[in-house]
Amino acid sequence: MAITTSEIGKQGLRCRGPRQETLLRMLENTLSHAERPDDLIVYAGLAKVARDHAALEKIVRALTEMEEDETLVIQSGKPVGVFPTGTRAPLVLMANSNLVGRWATSEHFYELEKRGLIAWGGYTAGDWQYIGSQGIVQGTYQTLVAVADEHFGGDLAGRLMVTAGLGGMGGAQPLATVMAGGVALCVEVDADRIKRRVDSGYLERGTESLDEALAWAREAMDAKRPASIGLLGNAAEVLPALRERGVVPDVVTDQTAAHDLRYGYVPVGMSPSEAADLRDTDPDELARRARASIATHVECMLAWQDAGSVVFEYGNNLRAQAAENGVDAFRIPIFVERYIRPLFCRGLGPFRWVATSGEQADLDLIDDMVVREFPDNPLAQRWIPIARESVRQAGLPSRISWLAHGERAKLALLVNAAVRIGELRGPVAFTRDHLDPGGVSQPLRETENMPDGSDAVSDWPLLNALLNAGSGADLVAIHAGGGGYAGYMQSAGVTLIADGTAAADDRITAALTADTGIGIMRYADAGYETAADAVRSSGLRWFG
Ligand code: NAD
Q: What sequence ranges are listed for the domain Urocanase N-terminal (predicted)?
């Protein structure tokens, strides 16, 4: 069984090479952030690091025993076999929760999951790339900065954001809001989650009283002081109660795991444990009640939108669930199209790195490198100092920062050189989110409303994965949605390892050029002129 503590980096070499050891540490690190470690569930209600405990043990054994010129193949979190593939091939290839189109439904997924035939890995849990809430803090922060720029003259001071869900990813919302200068009121139905976020420093304080929460929020707004408040309650009850009191928030969104009606959204009138009991006895009834509550929740968001609030969905399928109950939910925009896609068109997305030595000094050195090397990237220039000050590290020292096509390969090569001369004390793993230019098709999120209508074409992430594997990336994964996301998405994940070798230079150059290269071509192909400009200045051959 893998260790699950932040001591991961202090382990000696247990594998036959540093690349295998790095991926093992990435796996352990992901598990160390799990919301429900006993079930191997990392976040989003059901996103798992491995199929089950037996599969996890076999994966760990395979990583410790395999040679550098072999490839471990994993099917939905279960190891299949190890193949001799050569030194330039990926060490690990994965396919997670892919179902043939006609059968790609939640019901079919749950049935297969129950029979132990499939597992969902979320975006970054199943391919061992999760770095805790920091990963999502930056994306949320970036979105809020774009919201502030577009609607509030660049400043969220004195502005109230109402949201719900303080889980694995949603727990980043209060910290991101504070970083952006606003006041976050976060409704959460599970008292333990509120406590967990307060303990981790992501949330300032919590209360069970709506009156107290509102008084704290008003006081902070009047003082134009950033603040974050957790309020125990059900979003489908608390939001209407706020409306009844005449509250019109400046910004409204949601990060309950509404995409999953069995594991992700607690219906009105139930505690989380009562919902879990009903899941065991009558899952369809639980889903029915959850959807009805989501409908109420979304109706309230729509009313606020009509009253002038800036409302957007943050990618949890809340609108689709409410629409099933007849709510006109797609009047609410998705955050990606509105605030993030312009960045994707320039090849900018959430790049991340993990210092597998476990040494904070390694992370500090790379932070300095980013600030020094990318003076023309305002996102990184603004973010790195804020993250250094405000993001409490958990697990292996890691950082996320939005870097563009070209910048990612440049940074990874510099890091590889620093590993080579011993300036960095251990290998560094580079990954990215699937919320990224090249790696995803999700017609209700990342690729909603593409100008050429290609929202649901999943050739692009599949090509991205093939290209990454052909480039020799260390880990490549293709994913489809599981649970409530079944049938909704296709994506590709990639990990590169800087272990100081010349071979790593080659892999990094090829794969990190390919990864965002195919992304800017995808957006250029869809008709975005900024993406076409990015492709032209990249020097890549393009037939557009
Ligand atoms: P999670 O399962 O870890 O947490 C969900 C939280 O919502 C839990 O703490 C739960 O108690 C709470 N909750 C459930 N029902 C509630 C209700 N009725 N009222 C108040 N609280 C309630 O999930 P997570 O990892 O935090 O992710 C949340 C959702 O956001 C997922 O759907 C995820 O896919 C989505 N998300 C999408 C993106 C993206 O688009 N890139 C990024 C982050 C999160």
A: 12-128
